[in-house]
Design a protein that fits this description.
- The chain is of the alpha+beta class.
- 34% of the residues lie in helices and 31% in strands.
- The chain is built from four helices and five strands; from the N terminus they run E-H-H-H-E-E-E-E-H.
- It has a five-stranded mixed sheet.
- Helix 1 runs antiparallel to helix 2.
- The longest helix has 13 residues.
- The chain starts with a strand and ends in an 8-residue tail after the last helix.
């Protein structure tokens, strides 16, 4: 998958240094993937959830953090829209970010 953009991963790692390795692992697995559907993503990340409007939520570091990505399977592209703690995630509507 093409991931737009890695900058948000770096910034999240600066804000929460304890998730840097988990984000790098997520990035490497996602970059190498060729997902065509939610079921394909679940083969790589079993805990991913589809929340509507082409947004998918990934649990990072034991579900303490959440990553929201906008994924377009037809062009193999994902846009990272949000990375933060589970409690910060609860404050947003991830279907519109």
């Amino acid at each position: 998958m093409v991931i737009i953009s890695k900058t948000i991963l770096v910034e999240a790692g600066k804000k929460h240094p304890n998730i840097t390795s988990a984000l790098n692992e997520w990035y490497e697995k996602s970059k190498e993937a060729n997902w065509k559907s939610l079921s394909d993503i679940k083969k790589t990340f079993n805990s991913v959830d589809y929340v509507g409007n082409d947004r998918y939520v990934f649990n990072i570091k034991g579900n303490n953090y959440r990553l929201v990505a906008l994924i377009f399977f037809s062009i193999r592209t994902m846009f990272i829209r949000f990375i933060d703690t589970h409690s910060e995630y609860d404050k947003i509507d991830c279907r519109v970010i």
